[in-house]
Amino acid sequence: MKRDYYEVLGVSRDASEAELKKAYRRCAMKYHPDRNPGDKAAEAAFKECKEAYEVLSDAGKRRVYDQHGHAAFEHGMGGGADPGYADMGDIFGDIFGNIFGAGAARGPRRGADIGYVMELTLEEAVFGVEKQIEIPTLDECAACDGSGSADGKLDTCATCHGRGQVRFQRGIFSMQQTCPHCGGRGRTVRNPCAECRGQGRVERVKTLQVKVPAGVDNGDRIRLAGEGEAGPAGSPPGDLYVDVRVREHEIFQRDGDDLHCEVPVRISQAALGDVIRVPTLDGEVELRIPPETQTGKLFRLRDKGVRSVRSRAPGDLYCKVVVETPVNLTAEQRELLEKFEATFSGEGARRHSPRTSTFLDSVKGFWDRMTSSS
Question: What ranges of residues constitute the CR-type zinc fingers (predicted)?
Answer without folding.
Answer: 128-205
